[in-house]
Specification:
mainly beta, globular, 10% helix, 10 strands, ten-stranded parallel beta sheet, 138 residues
């Protein structure tokens, strides 16, 4: 419970009500401890705000921003992924660019959208943030 209280306080302080400056989301999750599935359509952007949400995004998302703490997000396809906050876990099948800030966030990807590249472009700041390729399934 202490982690949730700290996470929600950190979220409110850092990210209250915003996606990215000037960006409006096509679909937004703005709560805590929710389980949500959504099918992105026509490059729709998605923002996940809060803590301890479990979100599954299918289809071709235009951009996904994850703000907060302890969120678990699965994404089928996104050209631009941004993760802010603490201890978020994101699994993505196909991604072109990953930007991370905060602490102890993890992004696991399966393939780069641009097949001429071996990996997505990555920008990280903060401590303990990890971007890694998923291990091959047997």
């Amino acid at each position: 419970m202490r982690h949730l209280t700290v996470a929600l306080g950190l979220f409110a302080l850092c990210f209250s009500g915003t996606a990215l400056a000037g960006e409006r989301a096509g679909f937004t999750v703005d709560k805590a401890a929710q389980t949500v599935s959504h099918d992105c359509s026509d490059g729709e952007s998605v923002v996940v705000n809060g803590a301890q949400n479990t979100v599954t995004l299918t289809g071709n998302c235009g951009g996904v921003t994850v703000n907060g703490a302890y969120n678990k997000v699965s994404i089928a396809h996104v050209p631009d992924l941004t993760v802010n906050g603490q201890s978020n876990t994101v699994d993505v099948d196909a991604v072109a660019k990953v930007s991370m800030s905060g602490a102890n966030n993890t992004v696991t990807w399966k393939k780069a959208i641009d097949e001429t590249k071996k990996a997505p472009a990555v920008t990280k700041s903060g401590m303990g943030n990890t971007v890694k390729k998923a291990e091959a399934e047997e």
